[in-house]
TrEMBL record, chain A:
Keyword Nucleotide-binding among record annotations: no
Natural source organism: Paraphaeosphaeria minitans
The entry's keywords: DNA replication, Nucleus
A GO BP entry: DNA strand elongation involved in DNA replication
Protein name: DNA polymerase alpha/epsilon subunit B
GO cellular component: delta DNA polymerase complex
InterPro entries: DNA_pol_a/d/e_bsu, DNA_pol_D_N, DNA_pol_delta/II_ssu, PolD2_C
From TrEMBL, chain B:
Pfam families in alphabetical order: CDC27
Start-end of Low complexity biased regions: 186-208
Protein localization: Nucleus
Keyword Cell membrane: no
Species annotation: Paraphaeosphaeria minitans
Biased composition (Basic and acidic residues): 64-84, 244-256, 271-282, 305-330, 387-400
Biased composition (Basic residues): 373-386
Record-given protein name: DNA polymerase delta subunit 3
Biased composition (Acidic residues): 294-304
InterPro entries xref list: POLD3, POLD3_sf
Key words of the record: DNA replication, Nucleus
Start-end of Polar residues biased regions: 358-370
Region Disordered, residue ranges: 64-105, 185-444
């Protein structure tokens, strides 16, 4: 039934322990694509309109090219489709196509103006005008949690906009397949009522994909180094949603994870675990550490008492300490990259910047001094969310999942994996930012636009594990992985960095029955 | 050698003290490979069961492949209620191979199970690649999370030594590419508050313990902190420090571990406080006072038991601490970046003294660990103190706030030795917890 070496159910005399296994180095080159300028270089006064402008400008060519290929020969009742430069130049009854940014007008979408007016209204009603107003100004509350922005009555509108103006778009079931912010070419005619009846759409599709080891090889050639033979790559472990609460509940599963990764648990798994050469923690390591209060917490705070400024008594350090202890247990033998997530104590606007090393008094010993370098190749690397890196030569793009969660609220009945695929094909990692996702107001360039196609694209904090390959028009191939929440599923995703094969390891315990 | 000791150790731990033990903790305690520890547990379990059935209960760790009911987790593309995005008419122009067939994803399950459910769980496995005893405990365990106590104990008791060398002893995976640097301040920052709570009556109980204990303890503490906190060792003497003579290395280091923020806050305050202090201290630490004569504002509740037996060292220690505080204070003052912090700290600490607000250290112990009282479990010391706080923003209003800290008790790292000397631990346990805040306020 089982190989005998795995069965450790025997007593004295004790067999000699198996030889220790060791891990290979992890070829790792973080790209600092999503790092924001430091300190006063960061400007929050810009208009978000610039982001849409940049996005359209950068993607227009690619989309146009795709549309030309598809529609140049297109004829409808003798009419040849022609390209119209600006959306406002569309003539009624003329078959044409335009390129623009999608904007979804949805009744259920959070609207900051609504929010403020409601709040003020409520406040005035209470007549305690002054006190309440000052209290509300002191915190930012998260937008109301909504499962979806799609209004049940089906009255949502879709528009196509560019710098000239907006065009109302109509077409069957169009709404459920595009979201605010993606760049699109639409073929159709303008109807009598002024709406643009869409026949077909095109998007940019996957960008160029670098070869494996491309950057490394280039630099080797430049340095005139002989191409050394590379070691066989190990596995990449991805885990997300540890959701540490600091209470008892998380403990055993987390212990099992430590013991699995350090190769102490199990029998033959000790060697299989040694093929893991890097761990990526994809967000939400702590269960409730976001600086932004949820609506409920906000109300509680507001109702309870007025307390201005930082209230140290409400801070509980236990979850962070536990996370630190967890990291310091696995770091001696495994390099780790940590992405912040929605619930982590990082900035809330995308791209989230690395967690501060001060949170990790124990494990930052494995980090290169922040003063000297912003990356740690072997050890603890605190990275951004989203995050891009070359691991074992493959380009990896990962997020903690907020972008996907938000996108899924715009559409109904779409599988997360397919939504992830569409993000890649739209070449936009966070199309719904800045509309419904907090985002840094990028000015001249937007790193959230996909410039190179990754080999592996993962999103953390999914309900369940999913994975698939997608192919691009130029032979690009990308592995898309939805990484489940560890706190819910106990699963760790392993990606074989030679074959891009995916497997999972599930850590669990059987609940004792009384 | 370990082979002989393990029976004794396990019998004491599991049968006498009624504590759970995992293979991992056993390997740390006896310095053996984890796989040997697993076999020791099995051996012990088998032996005890033969002598008296059900005297020891085990949990097992199964590794293998579960039957496919669980498998749907790894399977992709079979959830019926979702429609595929790409089936939309608008994407029909995609030059994309439709629906690449998904090969089922390999899933390895690692499952922790009690011996009661072992057979049932085994059936759910298609293939078991490994099975071993995970832990032993005197009775059937109701909540698996209790086992986490063992790993916490590892962290607190067996954390010494270079983590990068652990694999030699315990057989965990090695990675020779990982480097570790010594961080300054790190350990001290990790547990500033704890120190204050851990201290309480250590001095008093130590006095009772008898003279043999104390010196050993100090010694050990000194040397451990030397290992872990070496980053701290270069003190630049502050203004006051220059007046005092330098003291022994160990002591400085020991104080490094003590170097807690509270003290620096305390010091940062006007000296006026000191006047009332000795009076308050009297009650708590008569013993110390008597021995030392004019002790200064450091509430010597904070001191190591050693004071009682070595006055000279004690004096040295005090001075070292003062230097340290001086430094800390300077750091705090120099720290312009967060001007709020010190003020707030001082503010909240002032309050309990000035006003009548009460402060009560409520001791709560995390479930399991308490039995016997000899072994130190994980205790959480909840300090609640009422604070009068005023904030400069809009309203100048004072209000009472309950401030609660909850922290795991990190044992002072004396992990040098294995937990053999239970007596030493016992002493500590007695001292832990109570009086903590009180002594701390005294200092303030």
């Amino acid at each position: 039934m089982a190989s005998s070496d795995g069965i450790l159910l025997k007593g004295a005399p004790f067999e000699d322990a198996a030889a220790v296994s060791s891990r290979n180095a992890s070829a790792y080159r973080p790209l600092h694509t999503f790092e924001l300028p430091k300190g006063s270089e960061k400007h929050y006064a810009h208009q978000f309109a610039d982001m849409y402008f940049v996005r359209l400008a950068q993607l227009k060519e690619a989309v146009k090219q795709k549309a030309h290929e598809a529609w140049d020969a297109f004829e409808l009742a003798g009419d040849k489709a022609k390209y119209v430069e600006r959306v406002l130049d569309v003539r009624q009854g003329e078959l044409c196509w335009v390129v623009g940014t999608v904007y979804m007008e949805m009744a259920m979408k959070p609207n900051v103006l609504d929010d403020i007016s409601k709040e003020v209204h409520k406040t005035l009603l209470r007549l305690s005008v002054h006190a309440q107003l000052t209290a509300t100004q002191h915190w930012i509350a998260a937008p109301p949690p909504r499962q979806t922005y799609v209004s049940p009555s089906g009255t949502d509108d879709m528009m196509l906009e560019d710098e000239s103006g907006r065009l109302r778009v109509a077409g069957n079931s169009l709404n459920s397949h595009y979201v605010t912010g993606c760049i699109l070419a639409a073929l159709g005619t303008e109807q009598a009522d002024g709406s643009f009846q869409v026949i077909a759409t095109q998007y940019a599709d996957l960008p160029r994909q670098p070869q494996r080891w491309e950057t490394e090889d280039a630099s080797l050639t430049l340095a005139k180094d002989p191409m050394s033979k590379r070691e066989k790559a190990g596995k990449l472990a991805i885990v997300s949603g540890l959701d540490l609460t600091g209470k008892e509940e998380d403990n055993v599963a987390l212990d099992l994870l430590v013991e699995y990764l350090s190769g102490e648990a199990g029998g033959p798994d000790q060697t299989s675990a040694s093929s893991i050469t890097r761990l990526v923690i994809a967000g939400n390591s702590l269960s409730n550490a976001s600086p932004i209060l949820s609506r409920e917490e906000f109300d509680v705070r507001k109702g309870a008492k007025r307390n201005y400024g930082y209230d140290s008594s409400s801070y509980n350090a236990t979850p962070a300490e536990k996370f630190d202890a967890f990291l310091s247990e696995i770091l001696p033998a495994l390099p780790v990259s940590v992405l912040p997530g929605e619930q982590d104590p990082a900035n809330v606007a995308l791209p989230q910047q690395p967690l501060h090393p001060a949170l990790f008094p124990l494990s930052r010993a494995y980090q290169d001094p922040p003063a000297l370098s912003s990356e740690t190749l072997e050890g603890l690397d605190l990275v951004t969310n989203p995050w891009e890196a070359d691991v074992e030569g493959w380009r990896i793009l990962g997020t903690a999942g907020q972008t996907l969660d938000d996108l899924l609220k715009y559409v109904e009945g779409v599988r997360p994996l397919d939504a992830m695929e569409m993000m890649l094909r739209w070449r936009c990692i966070a199309p719904t930012a800045p509309d419904t996702l907090w985002c840094y107001p990028f000015q001249d360039d937007d790193p959230l636009i996909l410039k190179e196609c990754p080999h592996i694209y993962f999103a953390g904090n999914r309900e369940k594990f999913q994975a698939k390959f997608v192919q691009g028009p130029a032979g690009q191939q990308t592995l898309i992985v939805g990484v489940p929440k560890f706190s819910k599923t106990g699963q760790v995703v392993l990606v074989d960095m030679e074959t891009l094969e995916v497997e999972t390891v599930k850590l669990a315990y059987v609940k004792p029955r009384p | 050698m370990a082979e002989e000791r393990y029976r004794e150790y396990l019998a004491e731990r599991v049968l006498a003290e009624g504590q759970p033990i995992t293979y991992r903790l056993l390997s740390r305690a006896l310095q053996v490979h984890v796989n040997i520890a697993k076999q020791m547990l099995y051996d012990f379990h088998a032996e005890q069961t033969k002598k008296q059935p059900k005297s020891v209960h085990a949990t097992y760790l199964l590794t293998g492949k579960e039957r496919s009911s669980e498998h749907s987790n790894g399977d992709i593309g079979h959830d019926g209620d979702d429609t595929a995005m790409r089936s939309s008419p608008f994407m029909s122009s995609l030059p994309e191979p439709e629906n690449t067939p998904e090969s089922p994803v390999r899933t390895t399950s690692i499952v922790l199970v009690r011996e009661e459910e072992l057979e049932k769980t085994k059936i759910e496995f298609e293939d078991i690649t490994s099975i071993h005893i995970y832990s032993l405990q005197p009775g059937p365990i109701e909540n698996m999370n209790l086992l986490a106590v063992c790993n916490q104990e590892i962290a607190s008791n067996h954390a010494s030594g270079d983590p990068l060398e652990r694999w030699r002893d315990y057989g965990s995976i090695q990675n020779r590419y990982i480097k570790r640097r010594t961080t300054r301040y790190a350990p001290a920052m990790a547990k500033p508050a704890t120190k204050a709570t851990a201290k309480p009556t250590a001095a008093v109980s130590a006095a009772k313990e008898g003279s043999k204990q104390a010196p050993t303890v100090t010694l050990r503490r000194g040397s451990t902190s030397e290992e872990s906190k070496s980053g701290r060792s270069t003190p630049q003497p502050g203004p006051t420090a220059s007046l005092k003579r330098s003291d022994s290395e160990t002591k400085t280091k020991k104080d490094a571990s003590v170097g807690n923020l509270f003290k620096s806050f305390a010091k940062a305050k006007p000296k006026a406080k000191e006047a009332e202090k000795p009076k308050e201290e009297d009650g708590l630490i008569i013993a110390t006072e008597a021995m030392e004569g004019m002790s200064e504002d450091e509430g010597d509740a904070d001191d190591e038991p050693a004071v009682k037996f070595d006055e000279e060292k004690a004096a040295a220690a005090r001075k070292a601490r003062e230097e340290r505080e001086q430094k800390l204070q300077e750091m705090m003052e120099a720290d312009v970046e967060m001007p709020d912090a010190p003020t707030e700290g001082t503010g909240s600490q002032d309050a309990p003294i000035d006003k009548e607000t009460s402060s009560q250290p409520a001791e709560s112990e995390a479930t399991v660990t308490v039995q016997g009282g000899r072994r130190r479990g994980k205790r959480r010391v909840l300090k609640k103190k009422k604070v009068k706080d005023e904030d400069g923003y809009l309203v100048t209003k004072e209000e009472a706030v309950w401030e609660s800290f909850s922290e795991d008790e990190p044992e002072p790292k004396k992990a040098k030795l294995t937990p053999k000397p239970t007596a030493a631990k016992g002493k500590k346990t007695g001292g832990k917890g109570q009086g903590s805040i009180a002594s701390f306020f005294k200092k303030a």
